[in-house]
Structures are given as structure tokens and as C-alpha cells.
Design a protein that fits this description.
Length: 301
Amino acid sequence: MDGVASMSWNRNTAFKAREYEADGSSLGGATDLKRDPGPHADAPYAVAFPSFFKSSETIVLPQGGKGFTVAGEDVDKTVGGVEYKRVSRIDAGVFTMDASARSVAPEFPAADATAVKVSLNEISDVVVHVRAPQGYTQSDHELQLRLSRAPTLASEFIDRASARVLKADYDDAIQDYDAALKLKPDDAELLNSRCFARGIANRALDLALADCTAAIDQKPHNAAYLDSRGFVYFRMGVLDKAISDFNAALDVAPDLAPTLYVRGLIERRRGDAAHGDADIAAAKSLDPTIAATYAGYGVKP
């Protein structure tokens, strides 16, 4: 098959960055090895042998790959008679990933079943993502493609909403989040996204606060959700609660540039220039565009 398609670069709210899940990077998988008691309960487990699977992907990254990173560790492990390998890297602006599973034995002992199950779950829990730098700016062509689509799925409404946020079309973005929430009611990620969109727009902050709080009630230690609510509190002028949420977010994820930046602004406004300047400098080192991003929201030192 040969053709052109749109790649699903989804926004990772914890890192405030878009990322792409490498195709075929998932290895292992949830496996139920439980057996009923019986005369052959201790028989070895059969393995499809011989068998071999390999997936390779190459992505030529925009902007020469500057600032792009790989999330998801390499794998070189034999579990349950199968050798799993995965290597991914970015070199000269090109991302490459090779993942393979090769059976090396026709069976494994029943005594290994519990350890095999745990290891397979651990391997499958991690997939590889190519992550764009925080503050990566899409081209107008990319944005227009996303804006031109007619959504029917929740994921499509979400994608168009995030594109509309980038175009500062907040009212229409919130309508898209409303539509997505009708398809996925009470979804914490969606509630957080709608909350942050209202926070950026600096309107309906009471509704934004309700959304963020509902998301945090579901996932109390999610750094992105805490950051969003902290920003809403900042917009409302409730600075003590803003600082509390920002501190909690940074306890979970110390390298969140947006959280450090806005906390630094609050500290400076309170007269703590030393800590404020340190937070702002740390944020800029993580994301050189952070000041310009928040200036676009009307938030400046």
C-alpha cells in the first residue's frame, strides 16, 4: 500500500507537547496463564515456535528534528521463550524504531508462569512516542488541515478543538469540547482540556474551575490537571490556591515549564524576586518559547 495520510500527533497534557505513538512499538501483552487444578496443571506452556515478528518505522521530522525526543525505553529481554527487542533513536533529524519478537524455545516451565505474566505486562505497558518540543508551532498548512475536517468521533472533535485553541478561536474550541464530552461524558482529559481553554480565554472561570476540579477528583495526582486548575486560580486572582496547585503539580512532574513559569510570575508579584526569577529561568530553559506563549494569553511579567 502506498499513499498519504495524516499522522495522529496527540497532545500529551502532562508535558504540554504533541507526540506520536510509533507504529508497532508495543511488545508483550496482557496474558492469562491461570490454569484450573488437575493432573496436568504443571505441564509446560507451549510457545509458537518458530515464529518471528518485526516492525520498523522511519519518520523524517520537521525542523531537522530540533528539540524532538523519544519517550519509551529500549527493550532486550527474553520472557516465556520469546526474545523481545526494541531500539529507537533520533539521528540527523530522522526517527527510527525497530521492534521484534522471536521465539527461541518451544515451551517454558509452568513454574515460570507468574513471572512471565508480570514481565509481559511490564513490557506491554511501555510504548514508544516521538515527542515534539514544548511550544512547537505548527505550520498554517497543518492547522488548516485540522480545521477543515468535519468531526464525528470524540477524538476528531478534540483535535479540531486544540487546533482552534492555537488559532485563538476559543468559543468554537469550547463548543468542540462540549461535543466531545457528549460522546465521552465525564472524561477527565476532556474536562481538563475545556477547563484550560476557558482559562486561556479568561472567561467563564467558574465553569473552568468546576471542570478542572471534576478532573482532579478522578485523578488527584495528575500534574497537568493541577497545572490547569492552578492557572484558573491565577486568572481569578486566588493566588494562594494557585501556588498550592502548582506546587502539587511540580511534586509530581518537576520539569513542567508552564507550571514553573506562572508560579514564577506569582512569586515575583508577591515580592519574592529571587524564587520568581529562578522559576522563570528554569521554565525558559525547558521551553524557550514559554514567555511568548503566555504573552499570547495576555500573561506577562
